[in-house]
Specification:
Elements lengths: L11 H38 L6 H15 L9 E5 L2 E14 L3 E12 L1
Antiparallel strand pairs: 1-2, 2-3
Helix pairs in contact: 1-2
Length: 116
C-alpha cells in the first residue's frame, strides 16, 4: 500500500511546480514595478530637460506632473532643477519598498542626476 502523497496518479509534482512558478512570477512582478518607475521617470526627465525654458520652476512643474502620472513616490520639493550655460541639470532621489505579502520587505533607493 502506497502513501497518500506517493504521486501514483501524477498530480503532486505538477501542482507543486505550478505553485512555485506562480510565486516566482508574483515576486518578479512586484520587484519590477519600482524599476519600471525609475526607468520611465528618468526617460521623461531627460525629455523634459531637452525642452527650452528659461525658468527652473517650469521644468520642476513638468517633472512633478510626470512623476505623479507615472506613480513615482517623490515629493515635488525634492526635485532640484538648475540651469547653467543653457544646460539643464535635474537631480532627485526617492525610495520604494516592495512588500511580498507581509513575509519579506525590500527597500530600493533610486537617484536621478542628469544634465541635458
Amino acid at each position: 500500500m502506497r502513501g497518500y502523497l506517493s504521486n501514483q496518479n501524477g498530480w503532486f509534482k505538477p501542482v507543486v511546480t505550478l505553485i512555485v512558478v506562480t510565486v516566482l512570477a508574483y515576486a518578479g512582478f512586484k520587484f519590477s514595478i519600482p524599476y519600471y518607475h525609475y526607468h520611465s521617470f528618468k526617460s521623461e526627465a531627460r525629455e523634459i530637460a531637452r525642452l527650452s525654458y528659461s525658468r527652473p520652476e517650469r521644468y520642476q512643474e513638468l517633472l512633478c506632473d510626470s512623476a505623479e502620472g507615472i506613480g513615482v513616490p517623490v515629493e515635488c520639493g525634492d526635485i532640484r532643477v538648475s540651469i547653467l550655460n543653457k544646460r539643464v541639470n535635474v537631480r532627485t532621489s526617492w525610495s520604494e519598498t516592495v512588500d511580498l505579502m507581509g513575509y519579506y520587505q525590500k527597500t530600493f533607493h533610486f537617484r536621478i542626476d542628469l544634465t541635458e
